[in-house]
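Consortium newsletter contribution from the modelling node. Members have asked for a concrete example of what our holo predictions look like. Here is one, prepared for the adenosine-5'-diphosphate complex that several groups have been discussing at recent meetings.
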Amino acid sequence: KYKVRVKGDYRYELGELASTLNHMAEEIVRSNQIKDDFISSISHELRTPLTSIKGWSETLDSGGYDPEETKVGMQIISKETERLIGLVEEILDFSKLQQNEMRLVFGEVVLKELLQEIMLNMWTKAEKKNIKLVLESDENPIVIGDGNRLKQIFLNLVDNAIKFSDEGSVIQLVLNCYPGQVEVDVHDTGLGISEEHLNRVRDRFFQVNPLNGGTGLGLAISQQLVEQHHGTMEIVSELGKGTIVRVMLPLAEIKEDTDQPEDSVP
Ligand code: ADP
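And here is the predicted structure:
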């Protein structure tokens, strides 16, 4: 049997090496396919708001619109521009995380206040589907983290929960403290994820249904940001029943709580 020298190491036998190379080639083909799919899906995601912005700006430029119609047009342009900025930021964040260039600024974060902010930020979106956002928390834990990035994680999870829930449902944010750890559950009773897809939803670019919009980067980004906070993210889901995304973070301390135990919007 021939042994092959790889980087000064004689470990590989020829057959073994051939099968390793084959495996690597398959991986490259697979990851190229995922990237091709991503490029086609992201192009579509970028094109939709751009088409709308172009259409409305040309229409408004041609004149003859009353102030009310002009206002609607301007609002659509502004909303679609926001959407574009969000998409580009998501892609940039992902690329920074990939290259290990994301710099986090750590400080004390009052998790309950952060979740209350998330509920206010997502309120309009939830209201459009008549979805109620509820926050349950008995204690007031502090974690050491990057407030903006922690916000990004939970905005993404609540955004998904709204996106994949039916009209009129309830999304719960549940905050629990354990020795040395804080748990935040984002609990929806929506579409759910099949067992087959559950392992893959955190893969970059993966989407169960690419026609739903989005980039397939949200959970990949959230997972990596949670890890940078020395935490874990677990997803429990049942198709047709709903999903719980559970984020565990190291607890710094518990502060005295002056708030009501339960908040909800709307
Ligand atoms: P995006 O939301 O942009 O598609 P994500 O990485 O956030 O990307 O999510 C990847 C996929 O995981 C989604 O496309 C969807 O198929 C599935 N998913 C995520 N969150 C949920 C949820 N709460 N309920 C059902 N499916 C979900």
